[in-house]
Amino acid sequence: MSLCEAEKTFILHGVEENFRIDGREREDYRPMEVEIGIISHAFGSARLRLANTDVLVAVKIEVDTPYPEKPSQGKLDFFVDCSANATPDFEGRGGEDLATGISNSLSDAYRSSKAFDLKKLCIMKGQKCWKLLVDILLLECGGNLYDAVSLAVKAALWNTRVPGVKSVGIDGKNVELNVSERLNDCVPLDVSGAPVMVTVCKIGEYCVVDPSAAEEKCSSAALVVAVSQGNITTVLQGSAGSLHPTTLMDSLGLGVEVANQLNIALMETLQSAPPHFDVGFLK
Amino acid sequence: MSRKELLSKIGLRADGRRAQELRRIRCKLGVFTEPDGSAYIEQGLTKVLAAVYGPHQVRGGRSKAQYDAAIVNCQFSMAVFSTGERKRRPRGDRKSTEMSIHLKQALMATIKTELYPWSQIDVYVEVLHADGGVYAACVNASTLALIDAGIPLKEYVCACTASLANNDIPMVDISYQEEVLGGPTLTVAALPMSEKIVLMEMTQRFHLDHLPKVLKEALRGCKDIKVILDEAVRNHLVNVGSSSGWVKNK
């Protein structure tokens, strides 16, 4: 998307007046839709649509050996795929830079044991653990990717059920797992601490949250804050541009406040979600 | 029913269909706002999203541009979670490249490329769940997306798979389970109204004598799919039209 000077000025003036181009105030989000369990062959999945941004997340689980330096922890891997459906720029390997950026920031945000406890994914110390593979597919980019991805990942993890292990047997060096075959015999994950990311964009003199694609073009600097239960787990200064320390602290404060509200809203939505209907993309 | 049997004695398949029955097809046009045209199709459990960009100026140097026709660019991609075993890469492997080429071949047969010289049409397909007949679902989704983008087509291009059960009876629309059970699979992309075949591909083997009846069954499948797609397109137009008030009835 390319904007001319007049369009940029229009957006800038809108932000100054606290009346953005789509009628929102500076701290408002666009409407969001979340749907869980739409991929039948994954252990957990979610699709989140934030206005024009569309993200699909699927969680697969494998049995793996823990890292030697962390024998009592499971593994959590993020993989982002930018589909060319979103924009022709992503064709071939075009989206890889963005994909690596997002997956790295997610791993950073989930690294703290307070944010996500990997110890619960351990089956047998030093021998076997569960490996959660979180695959994120970007289907449409309408701005504010980080927020949408983090919310979708949280929803997908909330929906994930880890298979129940009945017993573990050791025969020499072989470890045999006896996984329960009953579908109901699964353990949900604890995602209360899973971080929520908020992008704070500086447009002109003011900071806004949830920038649309056009607003991202006008921003002079952007800050991504990952917040877990009121604590900041990651701060990432994306895009070119610089921030004054005072502005930086203000944006962090704004980010944390908004993230807390978002987190509450997401958890409420997930808990009150109606029983699953097979809708997906057919709506 | 033994494991190896594709069709039981009473004529039912592993998923309960009869030999000539398609899986349930559900589709939707205009799923996304960013692309010029987009569509979503479900054939049984196989789920595919397609997006069309263009016709637009040729990207990446004008040397590729043609003076008398548009170039069609296809990319086939499978989500890493689309298969039972997680895939390592979504695209770029040999199978995906082959799929892209085959998809382009099928679409070139129907797009009126001569109307858009010096331009390019991009078709991107993303497989969300692969459960047999992936190529067929991709062709059908692309057709719908092209229609949604308003690109002139000669006619619908539909694809369908067929197989041979018990060395005698042709079956249509093969699921992944049936592919794995080991029947031969014939994939046909066709222009169902003029009954022309644009692409035919076969895996494994059966006797040449069986080919006509299997092919006939696949073509019949294409025609059945065309009827379903046509209905979806008409419904979509009525929905779009009713919001702008140019459809009187409804």
TrEMBL record, chain A:
<dbReference type="InterPro" id="IPR036345">
    <property type="entry name" value="ExoRNase_PH_dom2_sf"/>
</dbReference>
<dbReference type="InterPro" id="IPR015847">
    <property type="entry name" value="ExoRNase_PH_dom2"/>
</dbReference>
<dbReference type="GO" id="GO:0000177">
    <property type="term" value="C:cytoplasmic exosome (RNase complex)"/>
</dbReference>
<dbReference type="GO" id="GO:0000467">
    <property type="term" value="P:exonucleolytic trimming to generate mature 3'-end of 5.8S rRNA from tricistronic rRNA transcript (SSU-rRNA, 5.8S rRNA, LSU-rRNA)"/>
</dbReference>
<keyword id="KW-0271">Exosome</keyword>
<feature type="domain" description="Exoribonuclease phosphorolytic">
    <location>
        <begin position="29"/>
        <end position="163"/>
    </location>
</feature>
<dbReference type="GO" id="GO:0071038">
    <property type="term" value="P:TRAMP-dependent tRNA surveillance pathway"/>
</dbReference>
<comment type="similarity">
    <text>Belongs to the RNase PH family.</text>
</comment>
<dbReference type="GO" id="GO:0034473">
    <property type="term" value="P:U1 snRNA 3'-end processing"/>
</dbReference>
<dbReference type="InterPro" id="IPR027408">
    <property type="entry name" value="PNPase/RNase_PH_dom_sf"/>
</dbReference>
<dbReference type="GO" id="GO:0034476">
    <property type="term" value="P:U5 snRNA 3'-end processing"/>
</dbReference>
<dbReference type="GO" id="GO:0071035">
    <property type="term" value="P:nuclear polyadenylation-dependent rRNA catabolic process"/>
</dbReference>
<dbReference type="GO" id="GO:0035925">
    <property type="term" value="F:mRNA 3'-UTR AU-rich region binding"/>
</dbReference>
<dbReference type="InterPro" id="IPR050590">
    <property type="entry name" value="Exosome_comp_Rrp42_subfam"/>
</dbReference>
<dbReference type="GO" id="GO:0000176">
    <property type="term" value="C:nuclear exosome (RNase complex)"/>
</dbReference>
<dbReference type="GO" id="GO:0005730">
    <property type="term" value="C:nucleolus"/>
</dbReference>
<dbReference type="Pfam" id="PF03725">
    <property type="entry name" value="RNase_PH_C"/>
</dbReference>
<dbReference type="InterPro" id="IPR001247">
    <property type="entry name" value="ExoRNase_PH_dom1"/>
</dbReference>
<dbReference type="GO" id="GO:0071028">
    <property type="term" value="P:nuclear mRNA surveillance"/>
</dbReference>
<dbReference type="GO" id="GO:0034475">
    <property type="term" value="P:U4 snRNA 3'-end processing"/>
</dbReference>
<dbReference type="GO" id="GO:0016075">
    <property type="term" value="P:rRNA catabolic process"/>
</dbReference>
<protein>
    <recommendedName>
        <fullName>Ribosomal RNA-processing protein 42</fullName>
    </recommendedName>
</protein>
UniProtKB/TrEMBL annotation, chain B:
<dbReference type="GO" id="GO:0034475">
    <property type="term" value="P:U4 snRNA 3'-end processing"/>
</dbReference>
<dbReference type="GO" id="GO:0000176">
    <property type="term" value="C:nuclear exosome (RNase complex)"/>
</dbReference>
<dbReference type="InterPro" id="IPR036345">
    <property type="entry name" value="ExoRNase_PH_dom2_sf"/>
</dbReference>
<feature type="domain" description="Exoribonuclease phosphorolytic">
    <location>
        <begin position="156"/>
        <end position="220"/>
    </location>
</feature>
<comment type="subunit">
    <text>Component of the RNA exosome complex.</text>
</comment>
<dbReference type="GO" id="GO:0005730">
    <property type="term" value="C:nucleolus"/>
</dbReference>
<dbReference type="InterPro" id="IPR001247">
    <property type="entry name" value="ExoRNase_PH_dom1"/>
</dbReference>
<comment type="similarity">
    <text>Belongs to the RNase PH family.</text>
</comment>
<protein>
    <recommendedName>
        <fullName>Putative exosome complex component RRP41</fullName>
    </recommendedName>
</protein>
<dbReference type="Pfam" id="PF03725">
    <property type="entry name" value="RNase_PH_C"/>
</dbReference>
<dbReference type="GO" id="GO:0071051">
    <property type="term" value="P:poly(A)-dependent snoRNA 3'-end processing"/>
</dbReference>
<dbReference type="Pfam" id="PF01138">
    <property type="entry name" value="RNase_PH"/>
</dbReference>
<keyword id="KW-0271">Exosome</keyword>
<keyword id="KW-0963">Cytoplasm</keyword>
<dbReference type="InterPro" id="IPR027408">
    <property type="entry name" value="PNPase/RNase_PH_dom_sf"/>
</dbReference>
<dbReference type="InterPro" id="IPR050080">
    <property type="entry name" value="RNase_PH"/>
</dbReference>
<dbReference type="InterPro" id="IPR015847">
    <property type="entry name" value="ExoRNase_PH_dom2"/>
</dbReference>
<dbReference type="GO" id="GO:0016075">
    <property type="term" value="P:rRNA catabolic process"/>
</dbReference>
<feature type="domain" description="Exoribonuclease phosphorolytic">
    <location>
        <begin position="21"/>
        <end position="152"/>
    </location>
</feature>
<comment type="function">
    <text>Non-catalytic component of the RNA exosome complex which has 3'-&gt;5' exoribonuclease activity and participates in a multitude of cellular RNA processing and degradation events.</text>
</comment>
<dbReference type="InterPro" id="IPR020568">
    <property type="entry name" value="Ribosomal_Su5_D2-typ_SF"/>
</dbReference>
<dbReference type="GO" id="GO:0003723">
    <property type="term" value="F:RNA binding"/>
</dbReference>
